[in-house]
Amino acid sequence: MPLRDHFYPPLSNKTSWEGFHGAWPTMMILQLNRYLPDHFVAEPHVHVGAEIEVDIGTPEGEEAEPLDCNGETGLAYAPVEPSVAVETELLDTSEYEVRVFDVKHRRRLVAAVDIVSPSNKDRPKSRQVFTAKCEAMLRKGVSVAIVDLVTEKHFNLYTELLELIDQTDPTFEPEPPAISAAACRWIPGGRRHILQTWSHRLHLGQPLPTLPIWLAENFAVPLDLEACYEETCRALRIA
Prior knowledge:
By secondary structure, the chain is α+β, with helices and mostly antiparallel strands. The protein has one domain. Helix content is 25%, strand content 25%. It has 6 helices and 8 strands, in the order H-H-E-E-E-H-H-E-H-E-E-E-E-H. It has a 6-stranded mixed sheet, with helices on both faces. Strands 7-8 form a two-stranded antiparallel ribbon. Strand 2 and strand 3 form a beta hairpin. The longest helix is centred in the first third of the chain and has 16 residues, at 17-32. The chain starts with 10 loop residues before the first helix and ends with a helix.
């Protein structure tokens, strides 16, 4: 079945890309579970927006006690004027991700599949945050897959990740595509590590590829993007 454009009419008038992006990780997990050995688990990780929650627990049935300052008012310590005091805006980025853990080794993260959202591509800082996260995972031995269906933002985060580590993909030259899918890993190779990638240009109206999800240096499972994509479309009644 063909790849749809989820960001422009007519499809964007009928269903939201957020709904699709939120459902797709679950379908990926259902497919990966057919191949994952028993001591590996796949979990969704979805974070929308820039809200930050801090959970400060209070035992059930107890009220938080006010701070006792022995009747004193004002600040116990009055710092000097701040060096910087400006209004700021948190990066409004979203994460749609599948994570695979090795439960035999204290839930060690071994693989991640990142589905790119528009907020990951909309400005340089957002792209830097995304690629820095992927680069950090690669350095820790985590295999990383980047799946990008965002047609409205013409940046390629896979090639920007390679630029971050001073590499290029000749199959994506001279102009990288707006949408693509790639699997990446760094494996030990003597004094220097070896970077391996499996990259695919995506095209509207064409099927999606299968990516290798590496769980160990010599063991990978397939992620059939086309199969789980179509399953998601059927579940959401996307024609």
